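Record 1 of the preview.
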Amino acid sequence: MQDDLMAKAKDQMNVLENVIAGVPGVKGYKEKELRRETDKTVRTMVARQLDDQKARLTGLQVDLVNNGQLDLLDDMERAATKLQTLSDRVRTASYGYAPLFDDARVKEAELDALGQFDQAMFQDVARIQTIIDGMGALAGRPDSDWMESIRALTTTLDNLNTQFGHRSEVILQTAAAAGE
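->
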């Protein structure tokens, strides 16, 4: 997906940009900028998908209220908060620079690794969606069935929030592997 977005961005460069891109040093800079923009685009898409799942979870909370299953609301709200936190972190994560070293420019390899990390988030969203799909089928079921699904969702969100917390390490590990 990232390669498709990069190709599309390159295709959209106008004639002047293509001429300027031929100047030594400028081409690499422009490609880095395209990678940064691609990273941002991928994260925005992931955040939107997480927001969609949050909206579905909110709908399930309404269903619980309508079915009188009020004892589950606190646990569902904790899951919803974790989902919102993940969405916010994905949307607002820095890109293009190593957060621990503000003056350390990120090279193409690091940006590519970061892009792959962010693309893996799409699979993570699919896991969240699968759990919420299963919750949708629990209407009228006992609280114990709901709790199992809520725990699965909460555990998944905790793991993803932890995993996303290690995002900056992707840049540092790639740079270290390249001997920089």
